[in-house]
Amino acid sequence: MKVDQYFQGQPCWIELASLNISASKQFYSSLFGWEIIDMPIPQGIYSMMAIDGDDIGAMYQLPEEMVANGDTTQWTVYFAVENLDSSLVDVIGAGGTLLIGPHDVGEAGRMAIVQDPEGARFALWQAKNHLGAQRAAETHTLCWVELACRDPQEAKKFYPHVFGWGTRDSNMEGMDYTEWQVGAQDIGGMMAMTEEWGDMPAHWMLYFTVENCDDKAAQVEQLGGKVCVPPTDIPNVGRFAVINDPDGGFFSIIELRMGS
Known about the structure:
Layout: E1 11-18, H1 21-32, E2 35-41, E3 44-51, E4 54-61, H2 64-68, E5 74-80, H3 84-93, E6 97-105, E7 109-115, E8 121-127, E9 142-149, H4 152-163, E10 166-172, E11 175-182, E12 185-192, E13 203-209, H5 213-222, E14 226-234, E15 238-244, E16 250-256
Parallel strand pairs: 1-4, 5-8, 9-12, 13-16
Antiparallel strand pairs: 1-5, 2-3, 3-4, 6-7, 7-8, 9-13, 10-11, 11-12, 14-15, 15-16
Helix pairs in contact: 3-4
């Protein structure tokens, strides 16, 4: 489905910072069939990921100084905002931290990377000439974002303050779960991290739609990735798996079976 507009707080772009951009290009283009289109920028190369010529995200090589500081391969989700400067005031006022920016990206838009009070990173995007991902609600596109954190009550204060999100709580097989809402649309969720998560920091997980979770998980291993959580059913939702790419970047795949 073509996308021509994003509203405040909707996920609008995805970006992979890679330790090995050549390996990442090979892995993701093979796994999802994404076209990789290199764009020269002052800092190097910014590689667009596309479906039938429509941008759905991007990837880039991590600079050496960021690697030296301990950065690893990771995905970042961007949320649309109407006014970046105003949103940054809300982020900082609610206990978040500005990490990078704000700055203009040519005539495409303005961005900043921030973290919430618990340290989960995400980005803000105020669009100008580039709205963000141009495809959604189809195979191999982003369909869900999920916050894993240890203080859900704090997150319920922070994110609605920044984005104006609504929340809806439910219980999934004995686990409390919160859905984030932009108007009437469910755009993501939140789950509490227990002791079983060890020392993993709070983070945002990206979910990509696939036609067959088991087949795609098998392909991940053939391509040198790792299946961290094997294909598992979620009642009334679908079947998902958690994946590590060959450089350790994590994400999830999900075969949606709404109403099953």
